[in-house]
Amino acid sequence: xxxTCLPIxxxxxxxxCSPNVQLPKDGLNRPEGLDTNLDVSGMVxxxxxxxxxxxxxxxxxxxxxxxxxxxxxxxxxxxxSQFEKPGDFFxxxxxxxxxxxxxxxxxxxxxxLNNCRHRGARVCRADLGRTKNFTCTYxxxxxxxxxxxxxxxxxxxxxxxxxxxxxxxxxxxxVESYKGLIxxxxxxxxxxxxxxxxxxxxxMDAFLDRDPEGTYTVGGxxxxxxxxxxxxxxxxxxxxxxxxNMSHAxxxxxxxxxxxxxxxxxxxxxxxxxxxxHGNGAGFPVHIKNRFDAQPVHEYYDYDFLRERLSPEQVxxxxxxxxxxxxxxFSYLPVNGSIRIWHPKGPDKMEVWAWTVLDRGMPEDVARAxxxxxxxxxxPSGIFEQDDGENWSEAQANAGAFMVSNTPLNYQxxxxxxxxxxxxxxxxSGLYSDAAGRSLYRRWAELMSTPAWHEK
Length: 456
Hints:
With 456 residues, this protein is α+β, with helices and mostly antiparallel strands. The protein folds into 2 domains: 75-189, Rieske [2Fe-2S] iron-sulphur domain (Rieske Iron-sulfur Protein); 197-455, Alpha-Beta Complex (Naphthalene 1,2-dioxygenase Alpha Subunit, Chain A, domain 1). Helix content is 25%, strand content 26%. The chain contains 14 helices and 24 strands. It has helices at residues 59-68, 193-197, 200-208, 230-239, 244-247, 249-255, 264-267, 295-300, 303-309, 312-315, 364-378, 385-397, 402-405, 435-448, and strands spanning 3-7, 15-19, 44-45, 50-51, 75-79, 88-94, 97-103, 108-113, 128-130, 134-135, 142-143, 149-151, 174-178, 181-185, 215-227, 271-275, 281-285, 323-326, 330-333, 338-344, 349-359, 409-410, 419-421, 424-430. A hairpin with a 6-residue loop joins strand 10 (134-135) and strand 11 (142-143). It starts with a strand and ends in an 8-residue tail after the last helix.
């Protein structure tokens, strides 16, 4: 087995590693029909702005998402700063598949299916840590940091034909990173991560490239469970500034100096929404006085320096307030340094995992202010996060009812207003628009209607 190792661009000089092989073939002959695919192309009318509500509640559609969305898309795994020394590991999911991200002895980050090849138990049960190998607690099969089977009790009871190299942990064939964020893809022939991100990188850079030293995560990973389909959260972070003044009215009142809410020129601030053919989306107010909400963070930044390092357009747009989603289920909020992934847990449930990302150059008091601001606003008990979770659970509550599920949803805001702006890359529209939502579901329908790599 050979490997192609790609450098991670931070001070640690780590590597991510991609095997030059696809998943191993086996000797099984599975019957047809176990994974039946539905034709869902007619359930999304992205041009007319209508969505069939059953895509949020149908179990068969959900299972098809696991095969055709999550098994072929670039999925967020972890932040580079979570891996400092060989043996560092972090357990997460790709769709519903449990995986382990780990740094091997060559300081390469691997992503391995957390599934013992003997009886299928997880070989790692800890959320994160540092280890020399992974040992299954069922029968004791042990694997090294590259996933190779290195020992098993009673090995002499197997025939001479048994080869340990045939029973390694399954390695995710593509692992790549961008500005500190590590993504993985089960499709060996998937387009490079940078191509999948496209012009979205310009908007991401406004969040991830403010500091020449890069970023790091602090405070661990916060996790909570919500009732609601994962797409509801991904869609909102891609396209929906529209809900802010209504859903978050009480939070905005609490945070305003007067207690009456933001001034009209702030509440009705205009901006931009970005969208692309890969289903990525971002929205943000555009104003020369855009700033960070936490006062110590605002006072820390040299906005003139950032206009030179980035661009004036990035500083007055996506650097501060805003929202974004990388298709399918990774989102971020620049104003408080929040990154999060919406892990699907069935058609009506998701598990939210959230990190706080900080610039490496931030002094301790500034970093603390940003971390606490993130926790208070978009932590599980945050004043904004609670509103969002309530909305998603309410939207999901009766999604499976007969008349409800046969009533289409409206995604027509801003339809036909998409344009090309010389100051902002890609296709943009006004801040109040469903454009990125229509694009997300257009991409969803495209992948759901196209055979994936494992079906060919």
